[in-house]
Design goal:
mainly alpha; 6 helices; 84% helix; globular; transmembrane helix; membrane; WAT1-related protein; WAT1-related; EamA_dom
Length: 158
């Protein structure tokens, strides 16, 4: 039982570290977007340097040449789809949101990813949604609505 508790603590610390790093990344992007206004070029540079970092890490961790072989199958489609559609489009839309609304609004939509993944897994993989998960999803949506309402009130009064 102590091992499980230790994993929960490690997991919570990793999630906290991830959110702090992501918040810092969004703030940094907002500052850079004001100086460098070419969103598409900036997105291209971000994706290029991310692919360089990922390549170095992959070379370090996947040393077996067989794991680098690509075939014309679902694996190649998944790699191209994630690289082109998910990464590039997501970064571009994120930069657009950061330049118009700021890092707070961009960060507020991240919890919606959890809800979308839960709904997709329930539909596509027939996973069960528990009552606590539905309450959590409802609270996330209420929190998002409260932040959006607060930002709207703040903009209208000033």
């Amino acid at each position: 039982m102590g091992h499980v508790k230790e994993n929960w603590i490690k997991g919570a610390l990793l999630i906290l570290t991830s959110h702090i790093a992501w918040s810092a990344w969004l703030i940094l992007q907002a500052v850079v977007s004001k100086v460098y206004t070419a969103r598409l070029s900036l997105t291209t540079m971000i994706c290029f340097f991310a692919s360089l970092q990922s390549s170095f890490l992959a070379l370090f961790f996947a040393r077996n040449p067989i794991s680098w072989r690509l075939e014309w199958n679902l694996q190649l489609f998944t790699i191209v789809y994630c690289g082109v559609v998910i990464s590039a489009l997501a970064y571009y839309l994120q930069k657009w949101c950061l330049s118009y609304k700021g890092p707070v609004l961009a960060a507020m939509f991240i919890p919606l990813q959890v809800i979308i993944v839960a709904l997709f897994s329930a539909i596509a993989f027939a996973e069960r949604l528990h009552f606590g998960s539905l309450i959590g999803a409802f609270l996330i949506i209420v929190g998002l609505y409260c932040v959006l309402w607060g930002k709207k009130e703040r903009q209208s009064c000033c």
